[in-house]
UniProtKB/TrEMBL annotation:
It is an enzyme of class 5 (isomerase). Signal peptide: none annotated. Residues 531-706 form the Helicase C-terminal domain. Residues 357-520 form the Helicase ATP-binding domain. Pfam families: DEAD, Helicase_C, RecG_dom3_C, RecG_wedge. The keyword Hydrolase applies. SUPFAM superfamilies: Nucleic acid-binding proteins, P-loop containing nucleoside triphosphate hydrolases. It comes from Fibrella aestuarina BUZ 2. Belongs to the helicase family. RecG subfamily. It catalyses: Couples ATP hydrolysis with the unwinding of duplex DNA by translocating in the 3'-5' direction; ATP + H2O = ADP + phosphate + H(+). Plays a critical role in recombination and DNA repair. Helps process Holliday junction intermediates to mature products by catalyzing branch migration. Has replication fork regression activity, unwinds stalled or blocked replication forks to make a HJ that can be resolved. Has a DNA unwinding activity characteristic of a DNA helicase with 3'-5' polarity. Keywords: ATP-binding, DNA damage, DNA recombination, DNA repair, DNA-binding, Helicase, Hydrolase, Isomerase, Nucleotide-binding. CDD domains: DEXHc_RecG, RecG_wedge_OBF. This is ATP-dependent DNA helicase RecG.
């Protein structure tokens, strides 16, 4: 029976002893391993056959010990797969509750259900030591007397509590009769709660109150507070029970917890061991231990997250060949004769990165991040030229028809000038036209196809698709991207994913760890930063005045209304009301006002959009359909109604619709008076900066990564401890470490990487391999 094979450990004895040395235990063959713990919670495995010589035990400490007997393996389950109902101290009834309420089923689930905060009951404070800044404090003293004060909802029970250093009040607003019945005059209690100061007297409202037992001592560890439901509490699964269950679980699990990180990393980053970390995340011996445990577990979590992404990326590179795009004659022609403006440094750098990818003979999988207006379209076009130059076809997929149209119209002049065939395929393409397009794609006559989801259909086949560019990628699902791969059965197309939603670096690393990332972090020269202001609804007249003035100067204006599914009817009313009032304020024939929303048919949308793009309408009242990618350089004012209802990244996207020409552009955020503090932060951030990455960082702080697009499918929701908004430094370290290790030892066969190999094997291939195709 090996150490590892034991499926369960039985706690045979837990006897305390002092100055007595270690007791010897029964059959030494069966019970040759012990776990020994000190009274302060420090635990370590100890091998009795090593003898006491050189043992870490000191007579001044008190120890308890467990001896362990192996149990037969049950149905090949490992200890961590043990279902909770079989766990001592839990049992079937509690297990069922934990299943239902917290979705905890196995030992692994429970042991990884970490506290969300901790209370410090490791010491008693005297009343004279109390400070209002303390989040909570534990005080030991006697109840002298009590009385009720106030009437109605303000009626409260006030008990006078003293410990010789001072007097404080314990206050109850609820359950007065019950409390009163249970208080003992001059009884000694431990009170715990948040101290509040009023007229230099402290009080605790609704304290936790325990009668002092003779051996009352402060807790050895911080008290964990778990996220529990009311139902659990009603059925007596409270934090105390959880802490007790965790203690017993950790004791049992101790020998099964193996180090999951190689010694080199533990040394390098001075991490605590896995066991100490697991113990101290639940039952921290001190705040310092807690910090260490958190740091270690966050590192581990991010390390494995990155290891998985990077090794998938390496796999992908090996497995998937890509066409080699060597010829550049079209490209040279375009650069020489047709390039409409000098490329920015960032555009050139990104193009070099792309070109390099296309020469390796492996498939490119690259994410191109660039703020709105940074000029991704031209980069996409030049990349397409590279493909066509080498006998391949290219496609550009956009999430909406409006965008696809816009790309088509934007690329058409270039394509014409280059003598290239450019087509467009969307949901509204007529059947007859479709047939032709399908044939032209199959014969290779069509060089570039721009389109929407319609491109994904199986009937769309290419002669040789060499490049697939996906714009605004977060609107497409992983499965859809996989479909594009299959459009070239011989060699999968190179993939370039473009997004204008700047993702903070930390998040990008995690979300798209398997993609290479290129960033356009420079706007074309001569762009003036958009001036952003925040105005309350009552300043509307002033805002209208400003719009008039800008229109006089020949500019155009967007007015955007929120449209949120649940309140759709209401939102449409806002939109149409808004449209009417703007028409009244900007009457015909002097002014032309257009309207654009998602419920309009493709033809009307196109009509309105075209009129605005041509300058025939001066004001476009719209919903967020204009959010993505729309490009009308002459539009220089963006008014956002009910700006409080938009998320930060959405506001930034919308603002990006202006500031595309040479003129000074403006963004006006209109809101109600009542604003939450988060909303104020959003608006202030918008007013302060135009930098998409800075905005994305604030957004991440406000919302957390869970809300950001794409995180559902990324495995990011698996992160239990690490917070991408705060743990960027840990992520970077974890990623670099994972990268180094995989470079040196891609198959993790070196002995020093055994802990990684074992952990990866243990976690197994159960998780779906989503990242392959993202
Ligand atoms: P996005 O990155 O948001 O897709 P676009 O590609 O639509 O941005 O570019 C925005 C505008 O900037 C377009 O009108 C485009 O012609 C222009 N533009 C792009 N690159 C440059 C450049 N290097 N110099 C000047 N204007 C540029
Ligand atoms: Mg764009």
């Amino acid at each position: 029976m090996t150490w590892r094979n034991m499926s369960c450990w039985l706690r045979c004895a837990a006897s305390r002893f002092k100055n007595r040395g270690l007791p010897s235990v029964g059959n030494p063959k069966m019970l040759n391993k012990w776990i020994v713990g000190r009274d302060d919670g420090f635990i370590q495995p100890w091998f009795s056959n090593r003898g006491t010589c050189g043992s870490p035990f000191r007579p001044e400490n008190r120890y308890f010990y467990f001896t362990i007997a192996p149990l037969p393996m049950t149905e090949r389950t490992t200890f961590f797969e043990t279902r909770l109902e079989y766990l001592k101290g839990i049992g079937p009834q509690r297990a069922e509750l934990l299943n239902k309420e917290l979705h905890l089923f196995t030992v692994a689930d429970l042991i990884q259900y970490f506290p969300y905060r901790y209370e410090d009951r490791t010491r008693f404070y005297t009343i004279s030591e109390l400070m209002e800044s303390m989040p909570s404090a534990q005080v030991r003293g006697r109840i002298r007397d009590w009385h009720t004060e106030g009437e109605g909802p303000k009626k409260r029970l006030v008990a006078s509590f003293t410990d010789g250093t001072g007097t404080m009040d314990l206050v109850w607003f609820q359950g007065l009769t019950w409390v009163e019945k249970n208080l003992r005059r001059d009884g000694e209690y431990v009170a715990f709660g948040k101290p509040q100061e009023f007229q230099s007297k402290f009080s605790i409202v609704h304290p936790e109150l325990d009668a002092v037992r003779a051996d009352a001592e402060p807790d050895a560890s911080l008290t964990p507070v778990y996220n529990l439901t009311d139902k659990l509490r009603k059925r007596f699964i409270d934090n105390k029970v959880m802490a007790k269950a965790m203690r017993s679980l950790l004791e049992n699990a101790w020998p099964h917890i193996h180090e999951t990180l190689p010694a080199s990393l533990i040394d390098k980053f001075r991490l605590v061991g896995k066991r100490e970390a697991m113990w101290n995340i639940h039952l921290p011996q001190s705040t310092a231990w807690l910090r260490q445990a958190e740091r270690r577990l966050k590192f581990e979590e991010l390390f494995y997250n990155q290891l998985r992404l990077i090794s998938n990326k390496l796999l992908q590179k090996e497995e998937h060949p890509g066409q080699i795009f060597q010829k550049t004659s079209l490209l040279t022609h375009f650069y020489k004769h047709l390039l409409p403006f000098p490329l920015t440094g960032a555009q050139q750098r990104v193009l070099r990165e792309i070109h390099k990818d296309c020469l390796t003979g492996r498939q490119m999988n690259r994410l191109l991040q660039g703020d709105v207006g940074s000029g991704k379209t031209i980069v996409a076009f030049i990349t397409m030229l590279l493909a066509i130059d080498n006998g391949a076809q290219a496609c550009l997929m956009a999430p909406t028809e409006i965008l696809a149209d816009q790309h088509y119209n934007g690329l058409k002049p270039y394509a014409d000038a280059m003598g290239l065939n450019l087509g467009i395929l969307t949901g509204s393409t007529k059947t007859k036209r479709r047939k032709v397009l399908h044939e032209e794609l199959q014969s290779g006559q069509m060089h570039i196809i721009v389109g929407t989801h319609a491109l994904l259909e199986d009937v769309v086949q290419f002669r040789n698709l060499g490049l697939c560019i996906i714009d605004e990628q977060h609107r497409f699902g992983v499965a859809q991207r996989a479909k594009m791969w299959a459009k070239n059965p011989v060699v999968p197309p190179h993939i370039l994913v473009m997004t204008a939603t700047p993702i903070p670096r930390t998040l990008a690393m995690t979300l798209y760890g398997n993609l290479d990332i290129s960033i356009i972090d420079e706007l074309p020269a001569g762009r003036k930063p958009i001036k952003t202001v925040h105005k309350y609804d009552k300043h509307r007249a002033e805002v209208f005045g400003f719009m008039r003035q800008q229109i006089e100067l020949g500019r155009q204006v967007y007015v955007v209304y929120p449209l949120i599914e649940e309140s759709e009817t209401l939102d449409y009313k806002d939109l149409t009301d808004g449209h009417e009032s703007i028409q009244r304020a900007f009457p015909q024939p002097k002014y032309q006002v257009g309207i654009l929303h998602g419920k309009m048919d493709a033809f009307s949308k196109d009509y309105e959009m075209t009129r605005f793009a041509k300058g025939e309408t001066q004001i476009l009242v719209a919903t967020t359909v204009i959010e993505v990618g729309v490009n009308v350089p002459n539009a220089s004012v963006m008014v956002i109604e009910s700006a409080e209802r938009f998320g930060l990244s959405q506001l930034h996207q919308l603002r990006g619709r202006v500031g595309r020409g040479a003129e000074q552009s403006y963004c006006v955020l209109m809101t109600d008076y009542k604003l939450s503090s988060d909303t104020k932060t959003r608006l202030e951030t918008m007013v302060r900066t135009n930098n998409g990455f800075e905005i994305a960082d604030v957004d991440l702080q406000l919302r957390g990564p869970g809300d950001l697009a794409g995180t559902q499918q990324s495995g990011l929701t698996d992160l239990r401890l690490a917070d991408l908004a705060k743990d960027g430094a840990v992520l970077t370290a974890a990623r670099e470490s994972a990268q180094l290790i995989l470079e040196e030892d891609p198959n993790l066969v070196l002995p020093e990487n055994a802990p990684i190999r074992n952990h990866v094997d243990a976690v197994g291939r159960t998780k779906s391999d989503w990242s392959r195709i993202s």
